[in-house]
Amino acid sequence: MVPDPRKGTAQALGGFVLWGLFPLYFVLLDSVAASEVLAHRILWSALLLAPLLAARGRWHAAVAALGRPRRLSFYALTSLLMSTNWLIYIWATQNAHVIDASMGYFINPLVSVLLALAFLGERLRRAQWLAVGLAAIGVGMLVLRFGAVPWIALSLAATFGAYGLLRKKAALPALEGLLVETLLIAPFALLWLGYLASQGQMAFGSAGAGTTVLLALAGLVTVLPLALFLSSMAHLRLSTIGIIQYITPSLQFLCGLALGEPLAPGEWLTFVFIWIALAVFTWDALRHAPRQALQSAAAQR
């Protein structure tokens, strides 16, 4: 395939914009328990991915993974991290913590750098240490000012960072891996929905046609931005995608403001430190991107 930067940019923008608008979707479901929304997201994603991959002849790799105990245990762990991240995010957006959630995805690249340092043996450049330090100062100021740890932001960044670290070592491509993860956790989702139905507490089918349709769209909402993102990677440099990805938390932040969430002066200062840290991090990544590309090309010869 010949890389097409314009096509890749459009696909990346589509994926990251959709992810950035996630709060608006989940706020529409704020009358539904976060656990039920999570269950539907898991089930409908599996139901969408299975025929999609089967039609493209990519079903066999996912099925083979389900029959290998070592690979199965690996994806059991990633599915736990994924579902925990999804549940926290859904609960946060439904309970007026959209801005807190956006903070988590702003600092996620820096958390990923620290995880690479700890588990992959990567070494940080001075600018990267500076970026991590600035973000830590911002979070520390928030803790000192309000006496509370921003657990939503930190838990989202930690679970997504750990998930990304593990999936970096995964043998399956992203969509096949997501299918395995959703299939592994689908029985628990079904059991939970069955329990809610037995207690007369399930919103699906009983809370109005609009709510039922929105819940049924959870699979498409999950898979479409991921598919766009994966397609864009074939056309764009990783450094370019790294910059475009900040559209997602930026839109989430704006969604939080639009939904009327308050932002105290101390929180503004935290975001300023995080944004400066990201600017330093991005500048350093762009500065070293050509050198890394040359090293990668030389290694492949």
What does this structure look like?
81% of the residues lie in helices and 0% in strands. By secondary structure, the chain is mostly helical. The protein has one domain. The protein is globular. Mean pLDDT is 85; it is low at 293-301.
Low-confidence stretches: 293-301
Q: What is the H-and-E element order?
A: HHHHHHHHHHHHHH
What's the quaternary structure here?
Answer: single chain
- Average per-residue pLDDT, rounded, comes to 85
Number of DSSP strand runs: 0
Instruction: Give the C-alpha Rg.
Output: 20 Å
Structural class: mainly alpha
Sheet of most strands: none
| Number of separate domains | 1
Question: What's the end-to-end separation, in Å?
Answer: 20 Å
Count of alpha/pi helices: 14
Helix content: over 70%
Shape, per Cα inertia axes = globular
Looking at this protein, list some descriptive labels.
single chain; 301 residues; mainly alpha; 14 helices; 0% strand; globular; disordered C terminus
Summarize the structure.
This protein has 301 residues and is mostly helical.
Which SSEs are present, and which pair or pack?
Elements: H1 5-20, H2 22-28, H3 34-55, H4 59-66, H5 69-94, H6 98-119, H7 126-146, H8 151-168, H9 174-198, H10 209-216, H11 218-232, H12 238-244, H13 247-258, H14 265-300
Helix pairs in contact: 1-11, 1-13, 3-5, 3-9, 3-11, 4-9, 5-8, 5-9, 6-7, 6-8, 6-13, 6-14, 7-14, 12-14
